[in-house]
Fold this protein.
Amino acid sequence: MLTGLLLSPVITKAQDTAEETSAGDTTEMMMEEEVAPDPAPVMADDEIVVEDQPFHQIIKDKFIEGDPTFMTPVLICLILGLAVALERIITLNLSTTNTKKLLAKVEDALDQGGIEAAKDVTKSTKGPVASIFTQGLMRYSEGIEMVEKSIIAYGSVEMGRLEKGLVWISLFISLAPMLGFMGTVIGMIGAFDSIEAAGDISPSLVAGGIKIALLTTVAGLIVAIILQLFYNYCVAKIDSLVNDMEDASITLVDILVKHKLTK
């Protein structure tokens, strides 16, 4: 009994000391958790690479992934089609003529110097409209009917010159998707060959062939869309020039009839 009473304060004091130590450790752990900064968000390596890559590098990578064997013909169609389209656009814009101003000059020349003066005006002016006027004025001595026939005949010639090269753009518009679809078919054949050789359908086996198939198809469609825009612009420009030629030719005939009556 006496021993228990003597040891009781010692045990109580030891317990109090242990509780204080435990409470201190808990407080320190809580302070460390509060002080510790939040972990920084981890970004995937693939996302960082994609964001840092420039556009032309992405195109280059996709070109290589799609297999240059199938992508190169599609790229050639794009280059050749753009070359022809740009040449046509430049030529058509240079062929544009201010028909009202030209008609006014021709009429003034007829009043002041006659047919020869009008010929000089049309010969010094560039464009299909001026060329048609020159051909019509050269037939003035044969009568108004010959002037009209000459204008109609030479108008067809000038229209053919304006449409020169459009058939090549149309060819590349049709050819690019076909080449892309051919790559698609060949890629799918390769995918099925891999399945047959492995005897099992695994995504890793067919992913390569399907990727080639999709990339070549997309490339062919993109080329066709780009060239189609240029083709439609050229067609619209040619239609505008042809309408100007027809209107100006009718006005020229009226001016020549008026000049002949007042002569």
